[in-house]
Design a protein that fits this description.
The structure is a homodimer of 326-residue chains.
Chain A (H helix, E strand, L loop, with lengths): L2 H11 L3 H12 L5 H6 L9 E6 L6 H14 L4 E7 L6 H11 L8 E7 L6 H16 L3 E6 L4 H7 L4 E6 L4 H14 L2 E4 L7 H12 L11 E3 L8 H17 L1 H31 L5 H8 L5 H9 L2 H12 L2
Parallel strand pairs in A: 1-4, 1-5, 2-3, 2-4, 5-6, 6-7
């Protein structure tokens, strides 16, 4: 690892916010040094409570998040926020406005906010979010909140990183929720019916509770809470439910098994991602260009070309070599 | 490759439907022989027209598909259908009913229908769909339709495989469409407003056309068609629009560039997937067990473990070896 990266890591671990921001940028750009860098952060993994907050657009997540930050700050927690935005260029506007609203906490030294956006690669967001969460933890944040908008596959994958997943819904979004229900039910550790002063809130709560009966039996029973984030109603109950879920993960047999599986999954994803990065770099050396041209022109079958590359001694050696260099 | 796989491939290429079904099962299960198998299918890639059909649940896709199959069969095409179902166990019911309805064509020798379901792995569906499409093409199908329900990330990824993407929407689904619009706009080559005899159809059409103006300029201008699939209205126009889009891909400079990019992407994904499979197999040999246990118990940091594995001489050699064996 280049010496300046060591310096940067040391400065970050010593509490330098600018160094943290730089490291995030390095890691997000999939720099070749990412794995080294991440493996140097030291034995703090799993100390922070990683909370996922998701739900359809318009559910009031930003306001809820604002309230959560305030609660945790009042209790002297150090907070990291990862705002994941898998949106397309077309829908970027509204989300951006949300981000700006959240910046009300950005002057608070105890809150670090970072947005991540998709850039098209499958799994890229999840990888980046995982790295950033780990960096924030090493930096000393003990509450890390990952927020996503929408509930597509990308969002579910990101949510899988979290210890505790909070799904926020609102009474109005009937149709949307209908379509999304299945996915939401599976990932939620806590349901929040926000804007609970509106019509239909209690019906939605009852409906969710009924559907939750379909989940496999578990030592954790998913609560359906109601909040009115705009005036803070229900926030204390939410914060304490999150604490209880955290305790469940740390103390119960089922919870500990889940945490263990999470750590193993993190390891596995890291190996997979690192190899994928190396493949990309190996393929970008010039010697494959003629083959690539033939593939593009339809002269060589893509599968045949893949077999050729992967059976190539030098190609595989280059995967090894990049594991030793630097 | 084991001798019986060669026999199976030969039988499939000679038109044996049972052999095709077996090969699909082999490939879907990520058998180690997949890449070899796929690279032996020979030089027919890109001959079939690969059509993607997607849209929110309730848009009438199954009825539309039924009509499409009938049209293409009347014109003596050989048809393959890949019904992709990324749904959770909770929402499986409705989709299953759709599938059964489609089976009305399953007695027709000229139609081969195969369902694929998620099984949780990111990218797994897309990989399987790509392989199956290629197999169907090698089998002699010249129209291959990939159908997905919903418009999450998984579905978009699957749609990216298709030459021509048809997005089906209905007037009622206002809210849902609102939320999905951005993603749908990006992937659609043809929009279909189905159930166009209902209120709001023309407004939706106009709205979609207005939003399509936001797309980057292209030699292909995305048509917004209207259909009433239940009584066949508008189906001829849809079939001919699909034909025109196919022609655009084959003849225009932009279309050909897109096809070339698709072939390269297929190659790249294949390399990536194959390495990921090999990694999984390599890690499943016993010698990593103690390290995995430490990772699970939180004694070794996941990133550190990943670095250890990936720097291991034997691990990388096992990646090479599996490329030579068999």
């Amino acid at each position: 690892m280049p010496a300046d990266y060591e310096v940067l890591t040391d400065r970050m671990l010593a509490g330098d916010k600018a160094a943290l921001a730089k490291l995030i940028t390095i890691v997000e750009s999939r720099a070749p040094e990412t794995l080294w860098l991440m493996s140097r952060l030291g034995g703090k993994s799993g100390q922070a409570h990683l909370i996922g907050v998701t739900g359809p657009p318009g559910a009031g997540k930003s306001t809820l998040l604002d309230r959560l930050i305030a609660s945790y700050r009042a209790a002297r927690h150090e907070i990291g926020i990862i705002a994941v935005d898998p949106s397309s260029p077309f829908s970027g506007g509204a989300v951006l406005a949300d981000r700006i609203r959240m910046q009300s906490h950005s002057l608070d030294e105890g809150v670090f906010i970072r947005s991540l956006s998709a850039r098209g690669s499958v799994g890229g967001l999840t990888r980046a979010a995982r790295h950033v969460a780990r960096l924030l933890e090493a930096f000393g944040k003990d509450i890390i909140i990952v927020e996503t908008v929408g509930v597509g596959q990308n969002e579910s994958d990101v949510m899988r990183l979290a210890d505790t997943v909070v799904v926020v819904v609102v009474p109005e979004a009937g149709d949307t929720i209908q379509a999304m229900k299945a996915g939401l039910l599976e990932i939620a550790d806590i349901f929040v019916v926000n804007k609970a002063d509106r019509e239909g809130a209690m019906r939605l709560k009852a409906e969710l509770e009924a559907m939750l009966q379909l989940r496999p039996a578990s030592a954790w029973s998913v609560p359906v809470l109601t909040t009115v984030a705009t005036d803070g109603k229900g926030m204390d109950a939410l914060v304490s439910a999150m604490g209880e879920h955290r305790k469940f993960l740390q103390e119960g047999g089922e919870g500990r098994a889940r945490a263990a599986a999470g750590r193993y999954e993190e390891f596995l994803s890291t190996v997979r991602d690192e190899l994928a990065s190396r493949v990309e770099r190996s393929l970008s050396d010039g010697r494959w260009k003629p083959l690539f041209r033939q593939v593009r022109q339809g002269e060589v079958d893509p599968y045949e070309a893949a077999l050729r590359v992967i059976s190539d001694e030098k190609f595989v050696q280059s995967l090894v070599k990049s594991s030793r260099a630097r």
